[in-house]
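for the recovery benchmark. tokens below, seq after
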């Protein structure tokens, strides 16, 4: 593997599991030193806390096994003060910051008429406000350092509505504008901002179906390529968008979704014939 990220420092939010962990490990394999943000188990049940701690340890071990250095930084991305402290700590520890991956995300399922307003706010707070807060801190640093890159891990639900997940859909729709607006605002100042739009991917966020063969088959039937994506496939696209090979790419969202954004119900002709 080439060292496309040799000497660079990348902060990955929500980096201790799933897509974020895969991105952290992939970038480490390509030479990056990685700051892995995790939210911490403070409000979790003990069992969940153990799982989080285990995932965090596994991620750090995997980055180190890739021959790189990992820094664990605990912060809730929806909290402005914690995000500022996290960014300062990363820059202080590594002496630089070259890229930010806004990956932290949550979802809450509920019929909209019954959706708890606090849950709507919580999802927007992590997925969209959190991405803004992290980008703002990173951009401040990039401006003084002469450039940098932001990758927003969005979703196919940036463009595909997701009924019963209103906060999630709205947050990812907002991410489209976060990506394009920041990209335009900072294009002339050496900062690139792109989005990654995963389709259904095998990660903990999808624990409701990934380990259940019947439910998984039901999900995969809807995907033109007839299979869910793997975190590593998301990480490969993320690495490209953050690398200098994408030096002329900004403001774009790359969907890595097995064709899920291609209007799958049109796969067979059902009209005009
Ligand atoms: P995941 O649950 O493994 O990852 C989400 C991460 O965000 C976790 O590590 C979690 O601890 C962290 N997080 C949650 N709240 C946080 C907070 N307040 N501060 C900091 N970190 C916080 O699931 P994943 O599938 O790897 O999701 C990663 C991203 O990919 C999310 O933004 C998600 O919306 C997006 N995505 C996932 C899929 C999929 O099918 N898995 C599809 C499209 C988009």
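predicted aa per position
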């Amino acid at each position: 593997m080439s060292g496309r990220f040799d000497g660079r420092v990348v902060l990955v939010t929500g980096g201790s599991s799933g897509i974020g962990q895969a991105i952290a490990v992939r970038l480490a394999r390509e030479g990056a030193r990685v700051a892995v943000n995790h939210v911490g188990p403070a409000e979790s049940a003990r069992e969940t806390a153990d799982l989080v701690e285990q995932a965090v340890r596994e991620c750090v071990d995997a980055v180190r096994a890739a021959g790189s250095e990992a820094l664990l930084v605990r912060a809730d991305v929806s909290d402005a003060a914690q995000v500022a402290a996290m960014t300062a700590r990363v820059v202080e520890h590594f002496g630089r910051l070259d890229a930010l991956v806004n990956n932290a995300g949550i979802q809450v399922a509920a019929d909209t008429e019954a959706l708890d307003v606090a849950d709507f706010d919580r999802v927007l707070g992590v997925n969209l406000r959190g991405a803004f807060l992290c980008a703002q801190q990173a951009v401040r640093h990039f401006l003084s350092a002469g450039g940098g890159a932001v990758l927003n891990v969005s979703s196919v639900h940036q463009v595909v509505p997701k009924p019963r997940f209103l906060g999630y859909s709205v947050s990812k729709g907002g991410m489209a504008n976060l990506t394009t607006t920041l990209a335009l605002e900072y294009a002339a100042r050496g900062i690139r901002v792109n989005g990654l739009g995963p389709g259904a991917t095998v990660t903990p966020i999808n624990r409701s179906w990934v380990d259940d063969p019947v439910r998984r088959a039901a999900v995969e039937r809807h995907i033109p390529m007839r299979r869910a994506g793997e975190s590593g496939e998301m990480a490969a696209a993320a690495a490209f968008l953050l690398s200098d090979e994408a030096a002329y790419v900004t403001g774009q969202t790359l969907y890595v979704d097995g064709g899920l954004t291609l209007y799958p119900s049109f796969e067979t002709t059902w009209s005009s014939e």
